[in-house]
Amino acid sequence: MTSTDTHCPYCALQCGMRLRPVRPDRPGGPAVEVGERPEFPVNRGALCGKGRSAAAVLGRSVRLTEPLVRDVRTGTLRPAAWDEALDRAARGLTEAGERYGRDAVGVFGGGGLTNEKAYLLGKFARVALRTPHIDYNGRFCMSSAAAGQRAAFGLDRGLPFPLEDVARTGCLLLAGSNLADTMPPALRYLRAQQEAGGRLIVVDPRRTRTAEGADLHLRPAPGTDLALALALLHLVIVEGRVDEAFVAARTTGYAHARAAAMAHWPERAERITGVPVSAMRQAVAMFCDAPSGMVLTARGSEQHSKGTDTVGAWINLCLATGRAGRPLSGYGCLTGQGNGQGGREHGQKADQLPGYRSLTDPGARAHVAGVWGVDPDSLPGPGRSAYELLDSLGTDGGVRALLLMGSNPVVSAPHASHVTERLGALDHLVVCDVVRSETAELADVVLPTAQWAEEDGTMTNLEGRVILRQAAVAPPPGVRTDLAVLHALAARLGRDTGFPAAAGEVFDELRAASAGGQADYAGISYDRIRAEDGVFWPCPAPEHPGTPRLFLDRFATADGRARFADVSHRPAAEEPDARYPLRLTTGRVLAQYQSGAQTRRTPELRRAAPGPFVELHPRLAARLGIADGDPVVVTSRRGRVVAPAVVTGAIRPDTVFMPFHWAGPGRANTLTNPALDPVSRMPEFKVCAVRVEKAA
Ligand SMILES: Nc1nc2c(c(=O)[nH]1)N[C@H]1C(S)=C(S)[C@@H](COP(=O)(O)OP(=O)(O)OC[C@H]3O[C@@H](n4cnc5c(=O)[nH]c(N)nc54)[C@H](O)[C@@H]3O)O[C@H]1N2
Ligand SMILES: Nc1nc2c(c(=O)[nH]1)N[C@H]1C(S)=C(S)[C@@H](COP(=O)(O)OP(=O)(O)OC[C@H]3O[C@@H](n4cnc5c(=O)[nH]c(N)nc54)[C@H](O)[C@@H]3O)O[C@H]1N2
Ligand code: SF4
Ligand SMILES: [Mo]
């Protein structure tokens, strides 16, 4: 009985933790407890409440422990043996392909899955199902930042530097991140930065716990960061703060970016954003006076129908001031899910092959097809993006049979009532999950799978550090790993080989498939990860040290220069009007995680954050006759929800906020707008127009 070093199952910080075996405190309770692992550098033993309570979801009592199939007579889910469930799952996928063509079969994955699972899921779609239609919930997460970084730097890795650099930068501008609630142990890097004399600027419409600790808080209306970032660049230019030498030596495209910024004068941005020009000037002074600087964005700035352009505008600010490609400086994205980074590198994204290769690049196709032992021409092309895939379900020419692994779109997808309807219109839905989620309730076959502390595998954290998840307990009887499920389904689809169920074997294949690609894992091994507290990609060979810091000599573009984005402000897809006069923005609370499938089943988290709510400003509440705790109705063009009011001066009077962690009548995503960014295909989670009334 020894303890096991592993990592938290939840967010992208991937805090290190030590699991100790214990006798379950009740029948069906977890057989390990979470302890500290002070040596792991990212969190040095610190954990948030979600990490500390993570073992609760290992217990049998909250888990799916046997496969379920929909009974043809009663229409309800009933327990089934594994063989029956797998046969039925495979048959439904095959039949849809035979009846409507291979494009009618789809796969939806998740950024919480290990690299091994994401890799095998992508291979399963392209080789076993031979469908182009695979995408994942990471599309809802960092896709705008990924698109913006690729355009500017030729490469996308959440942070191009380790978190320890954040603690040493001169000025940190944090746009649309509430890190104090979404990655609490990372707050120590911000405090260290300020203690060392650095300045912190937070850009958020709400006065969050993160904003409270800032030296300067800018509060733009949701959906207006692009105007703000352009106006900040305008001020940088007119105040003579451009680093002309850096721009000349290491960038291209400045002339267009400069012209666009000059058209966004600060007074115009003040009208759009509500941020006073004086505060913009203060921000520019703080950012440019410091010896180094970083801009980090998270979902607040990115989850918009102009998220890619907004990221481009933040990157422009870094490039013009020479805050990129230099020590302690640069643009970065705080990725979100446990494996949000690795999940998009190894082939579950609609347009990508392992190693961050492009599915449209003939050389990339040939390399990966070689590793897979298939003809390159047999690999399908790019498929639909996450929302477009969900929107197509059950339609003519759309996907008719779907395999879903590691996501709960009934709660988390935009315009969720529509997505629920589409899921219901499928001929066949197979869901692999650890709990009976709201989406599993709609399935024809539910396969109970193992999770973090029950299996080995790698995850890639927000720094690009590849870390190792290690099994500490056996899964409950009746539960199989996701890899074993893919292995069994592939065999039923005629692929007896090529889908190993052992994580180490999959990882070795992933290394080969990624070799020579941008996200090159060829030199990484489980042993190295153990010995080195993680390895940063790219790491092309066993003797290569890994790459904690990118771009110091050159950017990853063909000519080595970073490219300015040519962007102008545009309104949100839906602006307030007479019928829907307020802006709704959505996000997270400290004690719940995502669709809540896991954290709503954890007693102490449920107590800490029992249900949805609507934040409104005291002036708005008074005008509407609403008191704190009153049930309020929020209506958008897509639907209406009811939840209690939280009256708080922390929000703008023209904006209301809802967390999205709950299903039912208070589901925030009943309201949200699925308008997509033209490049990243990110939905506009962070702003739509609503009406608020006191409930009758
Ligand atoms: N407790 C908890 N932690 C989590 C998660 C969780 O569900 N719960 N999920 C994980 C995942 S997957 C992710 S992606 C991350 C997300 O981490 P964050 O991005 O930090 O989380 P959010 O709450 O979605 O959004 C952050 C802030 O954006 C602000 N915002 C809204 N609209 C705008 C805007 O137009 N501009 C700007 N500048 N800000 C705006 C909101 O007020 C909010 O405070 O968190 C990870 N960590
Ligand atoms: N309104 C609004 N909506 C949003 C957002 C927002 O800010 N506002 N944010 C978006 C973002 S950033 C994200 S990342 C998405 C996330 O939303 P979802 O994709 O729904 O993410 P989770 O709730 O983490 O869902 C993971 C599911 O997989 C299961 N699971 C966990 N581990 C495993 C495993 O190892 N194997 C299998 N098979 N299953 C597993 C869990 O039990 C859960 O049911 O939500 C998006 N939705
Ligand atoms: S910050 Fe993220 S990784 Fe760390 S304990 Fe909390 S949820 Fe887990
Ligand atoms: Mo996310």
UniProtKB/TrEMBL annotation:
It holds the Pfam family Molybdop_Fe4S4. Transmembrane segments: none annotated. SMART domains: Molybdop_Fe4S4. CDD domains: MopB_CT_Fdh-Nap-like. Residues 1-62 form the 4Fe-4S Mo/W bis-MGD-type domain. SUPFAM superfamilies: ADC-like, Formate dehydrogenase/DMSO reductase, domains 1-3. It comes from the Bacteria. Keywords: 4Fe-4S, Iron, Iron-sulfur, Metal-binding. InterPro entries: Asp_de-COase-like_dom_sf (IPR009010), MoPterin_dinucl-bd_dom (IPR006657), Mopterin_OxRdtase (IPR006656), Mopterin_OxRdtase_4Fe-4S_dom (IPR006963), Mopterin_OxRdtase_prok_CS (IPR006655), Prok_molybdopt-oxidoreductase (IPR050123). This is Molybdopterin oxidoreductase family protein.
